[in-house]
Amino acid sequence: MAAPVLRGCCLGRCWALACIDSGSRHGRGAATGFTSSGKRGQSFVAQQPLLTAQKSRKGEHKWAAVVGLEIHAQIVSNSKLFSGSQVHFAAPPNSLVSFFDASLPGTLPVLNRRCVEAAVMTGLALNCHINKKSLFDRKHYFYADLPAGYQITQQRLPIAVNGSLAYSVCVGKKWRQVITKTVRIKQIQLEQDSGKSLHDELRSQTLIDLNRAGVGLLEVVLEPDMSCGEEAATAVRELQLILQALGTSQANMAEGQLRVDANISVHHPGEPLGVRTEVKNLNSARFLARAIDYEIQRQINELENGCEILNETRSFDYRLGCTVPMRDKEGKQDYRWLLLLSKYRYMFGAGAYFKSTR
Predict the structure, then answer these.
(1) pLDDT tens profile 339-354
(2) CA neighbours closer than 13 Å in the CB half-sphere of residue 6
(3) How far apart, in whole angstroms, are the C-alpha atoms of residue 259 and residue 257?
(4) Which of 39, 250, 270, 281 is the most buried (most CB within 10 A)?
(5) Aspartyl/Glutamyl-tRNA(Gln) amidotransferase subunit B/E catalytic domain location, by residue (predicted)?
(6) Which of 37-41, 177-181, 289-293 has the lowest average pLDDT?
(7) Could you tell me whether strands 177-192 and 160-171 are parallel, antiparallel, or unpaired per DSSP bridges?
(8) Which pLDDT value is given to residue 130?
(9) Distance of alpha carbon 97 from its chain centroid, rounded?
(10) What is the C-alpha separation between 266 and 287, in angstroms, rounded?
């Protein structure tokens, strides 16, 4: 791949949120510390008073932030991951739904070769190890837009593991110094997308559109090597460019083709990591940066006021510029993972059963 393209990430303005002493490092993705200059153009949270995070008064401790990302990219393919239904944005509701997508009894999945090829290409571009054998699992949870009551994904043995993503950031008082940073990639996996819930508040009802159900997704799991919102947004923009250059995903965030979940926690340097929260379904790099920065500051404020951080899922309200609770965070045991074995054993390798739709 070509050298990473420079994006507008200015760590100097929001480094106070990670609060690393000058000359120290936190995690593999951290750079040497710089203090906030308070210049115009700061992110939403960076504009707020950060007395505790910016300057540690005598007897007070500084905070370190830890950010990891789960990035879901829709694969460019004519059909869905396990069915022959076509994939089109903005098609009439429920017009692209096969019997398998609707989870009717007796239907079986058939794996789309194009989706596997796209995952392998992406893994190679991101310096991953490609597993010669890869398995699918059933992840059980119950929502109205998931007709089967489970999602076909990869938990135990994904298609690619142990990669890296390099990106460039600006640091320093005037953001003139450019450094290249690297975030580790834990794994890349194939999985089904869910349907879409359309909430009609005027009539107090929710409508379900299953056109998106079963569309092939690449989930790229980044290790928690980042420490602020702008840094995470820069990594996502870099990945977006790579996916578009490969042709594996259009990665149009406005159309929901690239969605990000951010896992965020804070702790005192040298102490164990704190309790994390997850901010779901962020479909804009700018909103991603704002949501992470807000959540870091919220957790710091909660802990300094003697409160506890709950392991929960939150969403970002872009109108209010804050995160709001959605539900308690499910543990792995709640998903009741099952290895997906059927007549054809869906694994990659000799004898794999594919369909050849592109």
Answers:
(1) 765 433 444 443 344 4
(2) 10
(3) 7
(4) 250
(5) 66-337
(6) 37-41
(7) antiparallel
(8) 97
(9) 26
(10) 20
Residues 221-232: what's their mean pLDDT? 94
Note the helical H segments in 72-200. 113-125
Q: At what angle do helices 285-304 and 11-18 cross, to 10 degrees?
A: 30
In whole angstroms, give the CA distance from residue 18 to residue 15. 5
In a 10 Å sphere around its CB, with 0-12 CB exposed, 13-18 middle and 19+ buried, how is residue 244 labelled?
middle
pLDDT (0 to 100) of residue 54:
38
Domain-by-domain residue ranges, the chain? Answer: 64-263+334-346
| 317: amino acid identity, one letter | D
Q: Has residue 58 got a pLDDT over 70?
A: no
The string of pLDDT tens digits covering residues 70-87 is 999 999 999 999 999 999
Check residue 270 and give left, alpha or beta (phi > 0: left; psi -120 to 50: alpha): left
Beta strand extents in the chain (DSSP E only): 6-10, 64-74, 111-112, 129-130, 137-140, 150-153, 160-171, 177-192, 196-200, 205-209, 216-226, 258-267, 277-282, 312-317, 322-328, 338-339, 354-355
Residue recorded with tokens 């990639």: 185
Residues, the chain:
358
pTM of the predicted model as reported, rounded to 2 decimal places: 0.78
The answer to whether the Cα torsion of 254, 222, 320, 49 is positive or negative is negative
